Amino acid sequence: MTAAMLFAHFRVKHFLGMPAVLLLLPLLFFAATAALGYSVEECRVAGWLPAAPAARSIPVSGESGLAQRIFVDLDLERFVQILDPRAVHWHFLPRQFISVVGLTILVTFGSSLDIAAIQAELGGQKLDYNGELEAIGIANLVSGLAGGATGSYIFSQTIFSAKRGVQSRWNGIVVFVGEFSLFLVPLDVLQFLPTSYIGGTMCLFGIDIMKDWLVSSRHLMSRLEYLILWFTFVITMCLTSVETFGVIEGIAFGSVASSFAFAINYAQTSDVREFVSATSSVVRPWKERQVLSSLQNSILAVSLHSFAFFGASMHMTKGIESQAEEQGARFVCLDFGRLSGIDATAADQIRMLVVQLEQGGRQVLLSSLRSSTVRRLLAAHSVVIPGSISRPVFQSLDQSLKWCEAKLLERWLPSNPLSISNIERPLTELLLQYVEGFGHSTGADGRPSPSSNDVAAARALVPHFDRLELNVGDYLFRQQDPADALFIVAAGGLRLTCPANYEKSHGTSRAQVAWVDTGHSRERSPSDASEHEEAIGVGAIVGDTAFFACHSCGLDAFAASGGCTVFRISRRRLEELELSNPSAVVLLQKVILRDLTQLQVQHLGPIQACSRLK
């Protein structure tokens, strides 16, 4: 019978194949035994049929005999006695706590596995995981209140139905009506089914489930996971062979093995540090960009993520130290914004890393210490030192990178502080600094210099720009103003602000301007907490992206302390220049091209690097 069931299950694809086999096998058995002359009692004696239950004295009289047999079989009086709270030995209840917890875990874990198994068979159909668990919980609650046992799905039947493509609700209705009818009938149906039939059905369930989870699942798992699966199965079978109940213990052994495997594998392969772009969001004047580009290896930016613990932290610190040595970094920025957690060993490893870096002449900067646990552990291990100048802590990685860039510029551009200069620079100088290196002309020192054509074009552009002088707090433009002009800062600085609600509805406006952080932020009131603010200085181009996109400025721009001088060219004058002096327009396009290219290098480049794009 087992062979016939297995053949029908694995080879016959029609949905009526298995029901037909299950129906015909008992009929064929009784037909064969009758033809061979065996009676039912002889079959029971031979073990081909289950033994008959002990006879019970059931009074039967009149037409109500069947009802009496049903109610006697249900034994309602005994059922009521079981639910009587006075019959409970309450002093034994605390001793059952471990068993109750174990049973709860078993049913919960088993139910989750049942749902996962059913979901695997449903293919693309989404199963409501929470809804299924709620249904199991409610059913167990009702069963317990009625004196029944705990349980879960008959998931084997659900899987078999799914494999056969049976999706009609009538399947469940028929099962419910049939099982409830068998519950009411005062007969044990199993005593009329051949033992080989019952055993074959159980073998079918077991073989099909083991085939799915012990054989067919091989390609769905890694080698280690597959070994743990077999280890859990073998240990569970061994425990159940010597104990009356070893499923919980077997699952516990498997869980412990999985935990050890995860810890070892995570420590060996997980890298909780990532080297990110060491360029801030500041878009500076061309001279400053050139200096920072030549010193790009001076800053090492590291983003720590995931969970840092003893095994992963050792690999992390060694990688950071070797990278800092390799590129000769002067500043090392450690960002903790993506770090979900840390243990004491990892915190001490970071302390040793910071000490080693500082002993090597490097300055360490910390940022994004949003987690109170991470901050507390780092402070306890003397990584975070409140008020320390040599090891500052910033709110974001971008702020720490701005600080590093400012230090580099202080050293390498001490005589040319464009970003904070109050001395007005000629417009021709500001324009020509963007086109250095475009042509093949060189100066007396052998360095690239603007060509004579570029110089002539720059001088031709000057009359078409308007010179604007702004006092402290005067607005150059507001958010909703149309972007119908380009601006170049000649002296002083501008403040650019953008409320958070505007960014949410219109997107970030960083790409609309050339940012230059002067490091002098005004005091903010609590009402300004959600407002994004930057400062720009001499040489910066403002509004170029918004100008060519033909939409609103998206920012408020006003003069910073000390006032500001700005050159402006309107859209109308630029259109007139296209007809009257195309070479001057070409020069301005070169200027804008280099400015926008720097935006791409600073913003699109890191995004491509993070996405592993080439």
UniProtKB/TrEMBL annotation:
Cyclic nucleotide-binding domain span? 473-497
Q: Which SUPFAM superfamilies does the entry link to?
A: cAMP-binding domain-like, SpoIIaa-like
- Report the locations given in the UniProt record: Membrane
Residues forming the STAS domain are 289-404
* Topology versus the membrane: Multi-pass membrane protein
The membrane spanning regions, by residue number, are 97-118, 226-248
Q: Which InterPro entries match?
A: cNMP-bd_dom, cNMP-bd_dom_sf, Membrane-Transporter-like, RmlC-like_jellyroll, SLC26A/SulP_dom, STAS_dom, STAS_dom_sf
The UniProt keyword set, sorted, is: Membrane, Transmembrane, Transmembrane helix
GO cellular component: a single term: membrane
Which Pfam families does this entry report, sorted A to Z? Answer: STAS, Sulfate_transp
Entry protein name? Sulfate transporter
